[in-house]
Amino acid sequence: MGSLPVPAFPAAAAKHGLDESSHIDESALTTLFKSQQSHLNFFFEHVDHSQTLAFTRALLNAAGTVFFTGVGKSGFVAHKISQTLVSLGIRSAFLSPVDALHGDIGILTDRDVLVLLSKSGATEELLRLVPCARAKGALLIALTSVEGNALAAACDMAVHLPLQRELCPFNLAPVTSTAIQMVFGDTVAIALMEARNLTKEEYAANHPAGKIGKSLIFKVKDVMRKQDDLPICRESDLIMDQLVELTSKGCGCLLVIDDRYRLIGTFTDGDLRRTLRASGEAIFQLTVGRMCNRNPRIIGPEAMAVEAMKKMEAPPSPVQFLPVINDENILIGIVTLHGLVSAGL
Known about the structure:
CBS-domain; SIS domain-containing protein; SIS_Kpsf; SIS_dom; repeat
């Protein structure tokens, strides 16, 4: 297949200060990505693992809250790392260095850890924050990339994040240094996750609105229809007398029960069509019990909702619903594929 033609330079682009010389080719872009990869590899090859271990243990053993702080791009990274720890069930928060100097430092205690992110280690706002945070008794840890900087010297602990240079051609824009900070912080977060033996269920409990969380938290009883929403009938009922029940509940089926509410079987709208084709006018005399499926797929209320979805999709052919029964075969609900999808599963 030949290469696609390069589109003509759009006239609209000229309105935004661009001209024909404003372009980048694939070779130049590839070179930039390879350069960034090289800079990141420099970090991985030179990071001091003994410093990293001491830092990780300090966070793991923190009796209070692990606060992160930084200015500018480092501040955004600090905020993100803190949020990652929170999602893992670790007490953490971002502390704005400016706001801290105007009252917010009151949240710090001698049980807390304060992690200060700065590429240069010369950030004025952080240097001003150090003596105030020290007076509160917090453990201060600097994450910096310049050797022998003032912030590292002023803190109780320092981790050097090796930086070969920024990808920026002027070696100024913080694009490689912030990538290193993010990689370092998130890797330590996973180390803490493993050290705390966080289970998948505990992780999911911190993400209840996400698909992962829902698949590990929601049980069938949380998403099933109950009581008046159930399309029920008796096995002696005539099929034609139950058409309203079959169609009005939106489940695509009838749940056939006995006098004790025990499930006998199911009769679907597909069963109705097949019965009509096979029986013709005789369908007016047929009972639901005679034509129902007496061996339907079922599920219990304590099963995980994601298990219900797998059971619906299992061979030999998928189904759109599962009756929910208790240990005594009593019908207590129905879970539908539509209901599972609506719940975010």
